[in-house]
Amino acid sequence: xxxxxxxKLIINKAYEVRSHFVAGYxxxxxxxxxxxxxxxxxxxxxxxxxxxxxxxGHVIGVFRADIVVDKxxxxxxxxxxxxxxxxxxxxxxxxxxxxxxxxLLINFGSTERLEIKRKYRVYNPHN
Length: 127
Prior knowledge:
By secondary structure, the chain is of the alpha+beta class. The protein contains 3 helices and 5 strands. The protein has a 5-stranded mixed beta sheet with strand order 1-2-3-4-5. Helix 1 packs across helix 2. It is globular. Pfam families: PDDEXK_3.
């Protein structure tokens, strides 16, 4: 399965989770449900993946990605009323330190709809 197919499957599974759990649950509920969906779909899924932040050859911190799928997509989950620019920046930072090119910011907390934003490690002015 190529990266685009993986991303499409992740999005479909996020909508499946949202159909069972509307807004109002803790992020951990959505995360556990999405992990089940992704694993049942046959994807290789890692959770709470630690990524060292380096400076001049020294580890100065550690980021923890919510979910990494097939080593090609980082998923950052939120359960907030509205996504903020800081949430997208957080995901782009994870992409930067990991070397993974694609990320999905998924917010289950909006009462109106599931929010999904795709982000890239390499700057793209159109996203």
